[in-house]
Protein: Exocyst complex component
Organism: Rhinopithecus bieti
Amino acid sequence: MERGKMAEAESLETAAEHERILREIESTDTACIGPTLRSVYDGEEHGRFMEKLETRIRNHDREIEKMCNFHYQGFVDSITELLKVRGEAQKLKNQVTDTNRKLQHEGKELVIAMEELKQCRLQQRNISATVDKLMLCLPVLEMYSKLRDQMKTKRHYPALKTLEHLEHTYLPQVSHYRFCKVMVDNIPKLREEIKDVSMSDLKDFLESIRKHSDKIGETAMKQAQQQRNLDNIVLQQPRIGSKRKSKKDAYIIFDTEIESTSPKSEQDSGILDVEDEEDDEEVPGAQDLVDFSPVYRCLHIYSVLGARETFENYYRKQRRKQARLVLQPPSNMHETLDGYRKYFNQIVGFFVVEDHILHTTQGLVNRAYIDELWEMALSKTIAALRTHSSYCSDPNLVLDLKNLIVLFADTLQVYGFPVNQLFDMLLEIRDQYSETLLKKWAGVFRNILDSDNYSPIPVTSEEMYKKVVGQFPFQDIELEKQPFPKKFPFSEFVPKVYNQIKEFIYACLKFSEDLHLSSTEIDDMIRKSTNLLLTRTLSNSLQNVIKRKNIGLTELVQIIINTTHLEKSCKYLEEFITNITNVLPETVHTTKLYGTTTFKDARHAAEEEIYTNLNQKIDQFLQLADYDWMTGDLGNKASDYLVDLIAFLRSTFAVFTHLPGKVAQTACMSACKHLATSLMQLLLEAEVRQLTLGALQQFNLDVRECEQFARSGPVPGFQEDTLQLAFIDLRQLLDLFIQWDWSTYLADYGQPNCKYLRVNPVTALTLLEKMKDTSRKNNMFAQFRKNERDKQKLIDTVAKQLRGLISSHHS
C-alpha cells in the first residue's frame, strides 16, 4: 500500500513538472526553448510529456478555430480593404519612385560635396594628428640639429650636454618612430666621436704647448725680473702703486663658460697671439698667453663619459714625455748664453703650465705628481749645467749664466718649487768661475808684464803725479818735495797690477750677488779667490817673466823694486775687501791674504835670477879670455876682456842703488865669488897643459884688477876687506908661485896662521905639473946647465912633497 502511495506521489510530481515545462514553452521565446526541451529529454518521462504536448496542441487548435470563426467577417472586410489599399500603394510607390529619382538627381551634387567634405574632414583630422606628432618630434629634431651644429663647430662639451638631454629627455617621448631608433643607435658613435675629437684637440694643445714652452717661460722670467726690479726700487723708495698681478690673479680660468665659448676660441690650439710689447710696458702674465680651454673641455668630457682616470693617465704620461724632451739640452748649449736661456725658458714654461693646471683643475695633476716631475727636472738640469758649464772658458759667460740661473731659480720659487739645490750648484759654478777668472787674469797679467818698459814712471806735472798716486797707494815725503820732473821708484806695471787685482775682487763680488750668502761667506770667497790670484796666477806670471831668457839685469832690478811696493800695498787690498764686504779682518775664521808671501817669493826669485844672470854675463866675458899660456913676456896691464868685465860690473852695481842693501851686497859678493872661481877653473882647466911664469904674471895682473874692483866698494855696506876675500884663494896661489915660496908653504902647511892657508896642495900640484912640463919642453939642453938642473930638481922635490901632503891628508 505504501508502495502504491509512493507511485501515486511520483506521478503527481511528474505531471506537475510537465505542466511547468509546457507553460515555459508557451511563454518563452523560441530562441531560448532549447534548455527547456533539454530538461524534458534529461528526464525519463518524455513519452508521457509528448502525450501531454499533443493534448495541449489540440486544445490550442480548437481555441484558434473558435477565434477564427468568431472574427471571419472582419477578416473578409480587412482583405477587401487591403486590396483597395494595394492599388493606392502602387500609386504611392510610383510617386515615391519618381520622387526618389528626382531626389537622387537633385542630391547627386550634394553627395559629391558631402564626399569632398568627408575627405576634407579626414585630411583635417590627419593634419591635426600630424601637427601634434610633429610638435612632439620637432624638439627632438631641433636638439639633434643643434647637436650636429655643435659638432661641426667643435663645441664638444656643449654637444655632449645636448646629447644627454636628447637621450634622456626627448627621445623617450618619440621612441616608437624609426628615425628615433636611428638616433638612439648613433648616440654611442657620437659619444666616441666627441671623445676622439676632444682628445685630438688635447693632442694639438700639448704639441702647441711643447713648441711654445720657451715663449711661456720667457714671459714668466721677464715677470720675475720685473718683480726683482720693483723690489730693488722698493728698497730705495716707498712703493706708490703697483700694477703687478698677484699669483692668485694669474690663476683665473680664461674660459668662464665653456658652453658659451665662441667657435674661434673653441678652435684655438692653445696659444694666443700676443704682439711684442715695449720694454716699458707691462709684460703679460705667463698664463695670459695660454688658452687652457682644450684641457678643461677634454677633462669635462671625459669626466661626463666616466673616463676621467683614462684622461688623467694619458695627460700625465704625455707631459712626462714632454718633460724628458724639454730637459734634454742641445749639444751646443754651452757656446752662447742664448742656448742656456732657451733651455731655461722651456723648463720654466713647462712647469708654469703644470702649476696652472694644478690650481685650476680638480685632480688632473696633484702636488705629488708635480714634485716628482720637479725632482726629475732638478736632477737632470743640474747634471746638464755641470756638464755644459765645464766647457765655459769665458768668465763673462759664466757670470751671465749665474745671473740666468738665479733668475731661473727665483722664477720657479715664485711658483712654489724648491730651488735650494740650484743655489748649491751655483757654489760649485763659483769655483769654476774663479778658475776662468784666474785664466783670464793670467792673460791680463802677462800682457801687462810683457808691455812694461821696466823703468821708473816719470811725471812732469802735479796732475800726472796725482793720477799715479790715485791708482796706487804710495806715499813718499821726499819724492813729494822733489821738483818736477821726477820719477816714481816703480814702473807702470805696479799700478796696473794693483788695479787689476781690485778688478778681480770686483768680478768675484759680482758672482756672489743674489746668492743669498752672508757677508762672512762672501768675504771668505773673495779672499780665497784673491789668494789664488796672488799665489798662483800672479806668482806664475812673475816667475815666467823672471825666468825669460832675454831678461836683463835692469828689468830684474825693477821687478824687485816693483814687488817690494806691491808687497807693501797688500794691507790696502785687505782694507779694500773689508770695505766692500763689511767684514772686519779681526773676525773669527777670516782668511788672510797671502800677497806678502807671493811678492816675497817673486822678489827672491828675481834676486836669484840676478845672481844667475850676473854669473852668466861674467861667463860670457870670460869666454873672450885669450891667454897665451906659453908666453915669456911680462905684461904691464890687465887683459882687455877683464877690464871690460869690471866696467860692466861697475855700471851694473850702480843700478842697484834702489835695491835693498842686502840684495845688492849679496849680488856683488856672488859675482866676485863666481869670477874668482871661474878664473881658478880657467887656470887649472885640463886643456891648459903647460904654462909659463910670464903667463902667470899676466894672470896675476888680471887678479889684481879684480882685487882693485873689490877694494873700490862697488856696493856700499861691506866691511873693509870682506869683498876681497872672494879672491883670497887666487891671491895666495899666485903669490906662492910667483914668489916661489915653497919652503914657507911646506913648513907652515896645516897651521891655522899659515901664510898660504887657502892654497890646496892638489891645486898647487896641478899647477906645478903644468910648469914642470913647460920647463922640460922649452929647455931641452938646460940639463947641461947647473942652475936649470937645480931648478928642475927643486920642482921634482916640491912635487914629491906635495904628493906626500896629499897622501897624508887622504889617509
